[in-house]
C-alpha cells in the first residue's frame, strides 16, 4: 500500500465521476443535485500527502476538502489520519467512495482498439461517511481498507479563520511521526508552595527509543490548558506577539522576539513571553520528568501543559494538562519604627513587592517623613486597623496624623514597578526638630537657554525661608547616557558618592519672602558642544541631604 500521485490517479478520478454519471437513470431534481455535489467535491479538492504533516488554513464557514486513494495490493490496507486543531473547535469528516468489483471496467480491447464497459460494470459507487468529529482535541482515525477506495476529508471552521495540521500515513509499521504518550498521560502535582509548584509525569516510550532527539517542554500560563503545542502558540500570537514556530525551534536564541526573555540555567531553557502584563513561560528540560516551576505569584492559579517534542521533525504530543493554585503569601515581617530613627527600605520589584513597619504612638500627634530615593512606591498607613492615609510618594513627603496615646500605626510600602525602589522613613512626635530639611515648592533645576555659551551654563533653583547649605555638582556625559543617568539617579545619595572633581561650589542662602527665595549660578570652564549633568544638594540642620532633580544641559557648539 502506498500513496498515489495526483496525475497517476487522475484517470481513476475521472472514471469514478463518469461511473456516477452512467449509474443514474432519469435522475430526479434531488438526485441531480446530489450528483452535482459529488462532482463538485471531487474537482474542488486537493490531494493529501502521505507520510507528511500538512498545515491547512481554513476560512470561516468555507469548507476545505482533501482526498487520497488506497489502491489494491494487499488483503487489508491499514491507514491512519491525525488532525490537530490549532485554535478554535472545527468540524471534520471522512467520506469513502468504494467501487464495486471489476470497477472501473477491465474488458479486453476490441478489434478497433477500444474498450467497452458492460452494463453490469456500470453499477454505482457506494458513498459513506465513516468518521466525523467536532471539537478542538487532537483526534486520530485508524482504518482498514479491503479494496480500492477513494477517501475525501472535509474540514470546516464555523467560528473564525484558523489553521490545523493533518497527518496521513499508510505505513503503520516503520514508526510514528509523533512521539508516543505513556498509558497514563496525566501530569501529577507533587507539591505546592507560595511561589513554586513541583510537577511530575510518566516517561514517554519515545524517550527510551530516541532519547537524544526527544525532550519535554513545559508551558505555564494563567488562562487555561492547551490541547496541542500549535494551539498554545496560536494563543500567544493572538495576544499580540510573535513566537517561533515550535518550542523546538525556540531553542535558537536568535529567533527570540523583543518581548521574549531567554534564561538558560542548569541545562534548562526558559523562554518568558510577556503577554498583556501576564507571563507565558516555555521551559524545555531535556528528558527529566520532574520539574519545580519557580518564581510564581502567591495565591494565583496556574495551568501547566507538558509536550513531548521530537527535535528532528518538530512533531509533538501533549500530556493531559493540569492546574494548581499557589499558597497565599505569608504575613509580611513587620519592622518596628522607633522615635526619630531613619530606616532605609529597599524593595526588589520582582521578588519583594511590599514591606511593613509598625509604630506605637507615645504622643497624640505623630509625624511621618518619607524620602523617595528610587523608583515608584505607594504608602498605606493604618491606625488600629483603619486606613488613615494612602498615596504614591514623590520626592520628600510629610504626613501629620493625630490620634490617641498607644495607638498602633502600620506603614505598608509597596513598589509599583518591576525595577528596584527605595525610600527612607522616619516617625517622630517632634515636628519642630525634623530630621530632613525644609523643602522648597519645587525641586527642579532651571537652565537659561539664552545665557548658554560655548564655555558656560547658567542654572537656577528655589530655596526656602530657612538658611540652608546648597552644593552644586557637574558631570560630563555622552548623549546616549542621558536616559540611564536620569533613571538610575538615587535621590537619597549625598555628595559623598560623587567624585571630588565634579564639585563646583557650595553656598548658603535663604529669603523670608518665598517669591524671592531663588538663586542662580553660572558654571564656567565647560567644553563646547558637550552634555553636562547638573545636581544640587540641599542640607538641613541635621546634615541629611536632599537631591534636586538632575538637569542635563548642552553647551553651545559655536559662539
UniProtKB/TrEMBL annotation:
GO MF assignments: heparin binding
Chief location: secreted
GO cellular-component term (any): extracellular region
Signal peptide: 1-21
Single Gene Ontology BP annotation: nervous system development
Compartment list: Secreted
Ranges of residues in domain Fibronectin type-III: 179-316, 437-545
Keyword field: Glycoprotein, Neurogenesis, Repeat, Secreted, Signal
Main function: Secretory protein that plays a role in various cellular processes. Acts as a chemorepellent acting on gonadotropin-releasing hormone (GnRH) expressing neurons regulating their migration to the hypothalamus. Also promotes neuron migration, growth and survival as well as neurite outgrowth and is involved in the development of the olfactory system. May also act through the regulation of growth factors activity and downstream signaling. Also regulates extracellular matrix assembly and cell adhesiveness.
The protein's name in its UniProt record: Protein NDNF
Organism: Dasyornis broadbenti (rufous bristle-bird)
Lineage of producing organism: Eukaryota, Metazoa, Chordata, Craniata, Vertebrata
